[in-house]
């Protein structure tokens, strides 16, 4: 395939990946990696490198908007970044040593889990402060809801921190934002409001990805010729997605369609991994 | 001078992130144009992992590549700027917490920066 044809196909595919990733809340990385490896026969290391770069672009871009609205809990984000960056560094090191087929299988499993998580209904929860650790670390905060300021407490700091360590490893190993795992840590374990956890998770993704990107960069996993159309395509797709999301109020049917597609892709990744075709 | 607040830090961080993405993506796009112009007719294959070309694998190689307008060197420089964006964001949070005299979070920001630097230094080992 010529550079011109490949660049155009990757650009178009990445645009779709960014769009779907943004509409479903799954992130562009989980869609672009199967696309590159299954359809275009790109080596999974190159695919992961390019995906990781696109993750930094989209998360930084949207975090810039969220942070100004004052919903993001910056202290909570900074504190948990200790866990995600340590995890990401370990994950990137691990990726250098385990077989690509094993990476493909792990990727498939995480992908199914993420698709499942994206279907779960989101409930806004507000809990009063009660954790001593949250108090000491100044994690309890407040956020604006319809011109009012709502205060919330953060619970189970240790459990959330541990889960973030795992989210970091997965992010570094697979080159994705692992937003679904971060939401488990913050919604499920630390019990913070959904809006805060989504924006704070997004805020952390860039730094987490940077911690593993520096390893990938030196190992030659980030190829400029491939990363260029991926990062431009995913970012433009994500921008389009955020514009559509503002207009469309409910997208439940859409989520189901995408969850089925993503689960199919995940199955393909696992199947190919088990047969050592990746 | 007015005391710096969390809200000011948030505004500054928002700008750092936005500027970082705009600048780095512009550099990637410009590099992409040069790459397209010089190589669009060649064959590309990514099915086997062989690393990256030497001239985009070292700071000096990238620098020389930029001076001779090699597309992939310019793209790689843009990618490095993009990776640096969230790291610079941590640096700005650090300065913000320092001005607020929030020593705990100054230390936490320093720790996160330290981990990223350690990760960068061990990139070749491991």
UniProtKB/TrEMBL annotation, chain A:
Major localization listed first in the record, in broad terms: membrane
InterPro entries the record matches: TM_pro_TauE-like, TSUP
Protein name (database record): Probable membrane transporter protein
Naturally occurring in which organism (per UniProt): Mucilaginibacter galii
Keyword Transmembrane helix: yes
Protein family according to the UniProt entry: Belongs to the 4-toluene sulfonate uptake permease (TSUP) (TC 2.A.102) family.
Topology term for the membrane: Multi-pass membrane protein
Compartmental location: Cell membrane
Transmembrane segments: 42-66, 78-96, 102-119, 161-181, 201-218, 230-248, 254-274
Keyword line: Cell membrane, Membrane, Transmembrane, Transmembrane helix, Transport
GO cellular component: plasma membrane
Pfam families the UniProt entry points to: TauE
Top-level taxon: Bacteria
From TrEMBL, chain B:
Keyword check for Amino-acid biosynthesis: no
Segments crossing the lipid bilayer: 12-37, 73-92, 104-125
Coiled-coil spans in chain: none
UniProt xrefs under InterPro entries: DUF1634
Xref: Pfam families: DUF1634
Entry annotated with the keyword Transferase: no
Keywords: Membrane, Transmembrane, Transmembrane helix
Full protein name: Membrane protein
Organism (species): Mucilaginibacter galii
Lineage of producing organism: Bacteria, Pseudomonadati, Bacteroidota, Sphingobacteriia, Sphingobacteriales
């Amino acid at each position: 395939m010529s550079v011109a044809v490949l660049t155009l196909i990757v650009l178009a595919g990445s645009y779709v990946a960014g769009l779907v990733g943004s509409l479903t809340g799954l992130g562009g990385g989980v869609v672009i990696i199967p696309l590159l490896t299954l359809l275009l026969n790109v080596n999974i290391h190159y695919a992961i490198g390019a995906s990781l770069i696109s993750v930094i672009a989209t998360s930084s871009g949207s975090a810039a908007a969220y942070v100004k609205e004052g919903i993001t809990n910056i202290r909570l984000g900074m504190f948990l970044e200790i866990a995600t960056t340590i995890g990401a560094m370990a994950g990137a090191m691990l990726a250098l040593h385990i077989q690509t087929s094993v990476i493909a299988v792990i990727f498939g499993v995480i992908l199914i889990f993420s698709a499942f998580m994206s279907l779960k209904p989101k409930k806004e929860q507000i809990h009063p402060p009660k954790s001593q650790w949250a108090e000491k670390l100044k994690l309890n905060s407040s956020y604006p809801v319809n011109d009012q300021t709502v205060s919330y407490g953060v619970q189970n700091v240790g459990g959330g921190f541990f889960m973030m360590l795992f989210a970091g490893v997965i992010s570094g190993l697979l080159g994705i934002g692992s937003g679904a795992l971060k939401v488990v840590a913050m919604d499920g374990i630390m019990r913070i409001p959904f809006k805060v956890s989504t924006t704070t998770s997004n805020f952390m993704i860039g730094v987490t990805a940077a911690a593993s990107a520096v390893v990938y960069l030196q190992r030659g996993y980030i190829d400029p010729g491939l990363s260029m159309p991926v990062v431009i395509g995913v970012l433009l797709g994500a921008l389009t997605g955020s514009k559509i999301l503002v207009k469309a109020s409910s997208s439940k049917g859409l989520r189901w369609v995408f969850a089925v597609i993503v689960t199919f892709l995940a199955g393909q990744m696992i199947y190919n991994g088990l047969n050592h075709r990746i | 001078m007015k005391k710096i607040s969390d809200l000011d830090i948030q505004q500054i961080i928002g700008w750092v992130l936005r500027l970082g993405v705009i600048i780095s993506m512009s550099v990637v796009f410009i590099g992409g144009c040069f790459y397209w112009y010089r190589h669009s007719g060649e064959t590309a294959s990514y099915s086997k992992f062989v690393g990256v070309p030497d001239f985009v694998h070292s700071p000096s190689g990238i620098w020389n590549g930029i001076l001779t307008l090699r597309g992939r060197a310019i793209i790689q420089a843009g990618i490095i700027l993009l990776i640096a964006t969230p790291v610079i964001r941590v640096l700005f949070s650090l300065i913000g917490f320092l001005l607020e005299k929030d020593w705990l979070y100054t230390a936490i920001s320093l720790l996160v920066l330290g981990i990223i630097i350690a990760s960068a230094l061990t990139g070749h080992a491991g």
